[in-house]
Amino acid sequence: AAGVIQSPRHLIKEKRETATLKCYPIPRHDTVYWYQQGPGQDPQFLISFYEKMQSDKGSIPDRFSAQQFSDYHSELNMSSLELGDSALYFCASSDRGGRPEAFFGQGTRLTVV
Amino acid sequence: AQTVTQSQPEMSVQEAETVTLSCTYDTSESDYYLFWYKQPPSRQMILVIRQEAYKQQNATENRFSVNFQKAAKSFSLKISDSQLGDAAMYFCATTSGAGSYQLTFGKGTKLSVIP
């Protein structure tokens, strides 16, 4: 079965640089979520999209933005990167009209140096 | 707002034995879902089991079962016949039953399986 695809898997950026993370949800899933998991932490909800519209917003910094495109893939854009942004970023998708559980991608490990 | 508490940062179990991981939660929602996710060393988040709050029957998935006590807001995970591959971080999570299903996670319990 198709899963959530995230790219890149690993990313190293310098402080103050910009990063773009991509997510391809499971086919026919209408909702995409982004989570941030710091070292030794639980995942924290950043933002979600339903049918290409922003649905809910969590603890996403103003330096971050995201969008969902017509083909349902989503991108998380992170600017003015800080050392504290180093984390594992997960994308997840679900079918809001069907089962409520979210299925996670393998994550993008971002390291800011 | 929802909160999830996992009071056991670490647990260990002998291979083939049974272990129970604890979770309590708080929510103002009348309709919600509860989940256990497993995160092995690969860091992949894997869904283990789901429970609908409106269902009284406890969910079961093979060797994994839950004890859902709605009045006590408790949602524990029982792993039977523990295997080496069960070693992982286990996160309890909840989500509202309406609108967006974003998850609120507990801090996790690290489970070690002793051969």
Secondary-structure map:
The complex is a heterodimer of chains A (113) and B (115).
Chain A: E1 5-7, E2 10-13, E3 19-24, E4 31-37, E5 44-50, E6 53-57, E7 64-68, E8 74-78, E9 87-94, E10 103-104, E11 108-112
Parallel strand pairs in A: 2-11
Antiparallel strand pairs in A: 1-3, 3-8, 4-5, 4-9, 5-6, 7-8, 9-10, 9-11
Chain B: E1 3-5, E2 10-14, E3 19-21, E4 24-26, E5 32-39, E6 46-52, E7 60-61, E8 64-69, E9 74-79, E10 88-96, E11 104-105, E12 109-114
Parallel strand pairs in B: 2-12
Antiparallel strand pairs in B: 1-4, 3-9, 5-6, 5-10, 7-8, 8-9, 10-11, 10-12
Structural key phrases:
heterodimer, A: 113 residues, mainly beta, seven-stranded mixed beta sheet, 11 strands, B: mainly beta, six-stranded mixed beta sheet, four-stranded antiparallel beta sheet, 12 strands, 0% helix
Low-confidence stretches of chain B: none
Helical content class of chain B: under 10%
How would you sum up the global shape of chain B?
globular
| Largest β sheet strand count, sense and barrel closure of chain B | 6 strands, mixed
Please report the distance between the alpha carbons of the first and last residues of chain A. Answer: 37 Å
Question: In what range is the share of β-strand residues of chain B?
Answer: over 45%
* Oligomeric category: heterodimer
Number of helices of chain A: 0
Let me know the largest β-sheet of chain A: 7 strands, mixed
Number of helices of chain B: 0
Strand content of chain A: over 45%
Low-confidence runs of chain A (pLDDT<50, min 5 residues)?
none
What would the average pLDDT of chain A be, to the nearest integer?
Answer: 94
Separation, N- and C-terminal Cα atoms of chain B: 41 Å
Radius of gyration of chain B: 14 Å
Total strand segments of chain B: 12
Q: From N to C, what is the helix and strand string of chain B?
A: EEEEEEEEEEEE
Class per helix and strand makeup of chain A:
mainly beta
